[in-house]
Amino acid sequence: MNLLSFFNRRTSAPVARERLQILLAHERGIVGGKPDLVAQLREEILAVVRRHVMVEQDNVQVKMNRDSDISTLEIEIEIPAPVAARA
Amino acid sequence: MAKVLVVTSGKGGVGKTTSSAALGAALAHGGEKVVVIDFDVGLRNLDLVMGAERRVVFDLINVVQGDAKLNQALIRDKRLENLSLLPASQTRDKDALTEEGVARVLDELREKFDWIICDSPAGIERGATMAMRHADVAVVVTNPEVSSVRDSDRIIGLLDSKTELAEKGGRIEKHLLLTRYDPVRAERGEMLKVDDVLEILSIPLIGIIPESEEVLRASNVGSPVTLNNPASAPGRAYFDAVRRLKGETVELTIPTDKKGLFGKLFGRRAA
């Protein structure tokens, strides 16, 4: 590790700047075109799934990651096994 | 013509009340007739910062509801006769601030004063929206810190959509006042720089108030920093901000209490 990287490691302001730029791009609706598009997608996708299967709130895992270039929405739904299939 | 100026920020503790008092006193010092209104109903503090806490009889809510005349509620500053304070109520609820009532009080104040400074409470609830509602000019107080910058961004959005001026299709004049700035830490990369904040918020800069012991010293004794120590770094920074507010072009420097070195090193031009 050279002297420069030692000093760079200590500067936190550039991190603050980047975090703010990403966050505000989302909050202003620049990314995705609408304020909180990802949150809206999450709600609507869950509503569609619920129309077909009863899903317990506990069996849904939602992960969101907002980044400067891409945002990801990961939805994991445990669909219950069909109750006593037709005999 | 009277100007209604709102001092706002979203986040609490960034220096709205300090700045309202300091800007108001600096304007009054220059001969303008100024009234500073505390909109923080229930948590008033402008009276304390201006050293008038023992002289409050009636307040903004009393005037809004017609229980007191404006002249009964206005407190004239003991140091500057053309500076007045309209205190907030300490016991009432923010919901007592009606839009029509506030508009009526502001119309009456426009007849008597050159500048009406509305000290907004933190948050985006009724007190804050009422403080900005009828403003012509906004001073957005921001610290070089992530949560303050985010909240300022939100407030700028509200200024552009929820004010009377914006609803009529106009544009409210907005200025950034960066407070508690430490040029040494910013240069070391430990604090967001002036240009970082300006780039993110993209509104013109009206002043940079350096972090200084003088601010606490002034509030301890109940005197706006521009009166208590006009030659101090924050004192000079607020006086410069007031000159810009009045339309003058003033070179942008960060005053310092220590022998003018940083002011020279970090001098820049106003946007």
TrEMBL record, chain A:
Keyword DNA-binding found: no
Key words, A-Z: Cell cycle, Cell division
Biological process terms in GO annotation: cell division
Top-rank lineage group of the source organism: Bacteria
Function: Prevents the cell division inhibition by proteins MinC and MinD at internal division sites while permitting inhibition at polar sites. This ensures cell division at the proper site by restricting the formation of a division septum at the midpoint of the long axis of the cell.
Classification via Pfam families: MinE
Native species: Microvirga terrestris
The keyword S-adenosyl-L-methionine is assigned to this record: no
InterPro entries: MinE, MinE_sf
Family annotation (NCBIfam families): minE, PRK00296.1
Family statement drawn from the similarity comment of this UniProt entry: Belongs to the MinE family.
Lineage, top ranks: Bacteria, Pseudomonadati, Pseudomonadota, Alphaproteobacteria, Hyphomicrobiales
Protein name from the UniProt record: Cell division topological specificity factor
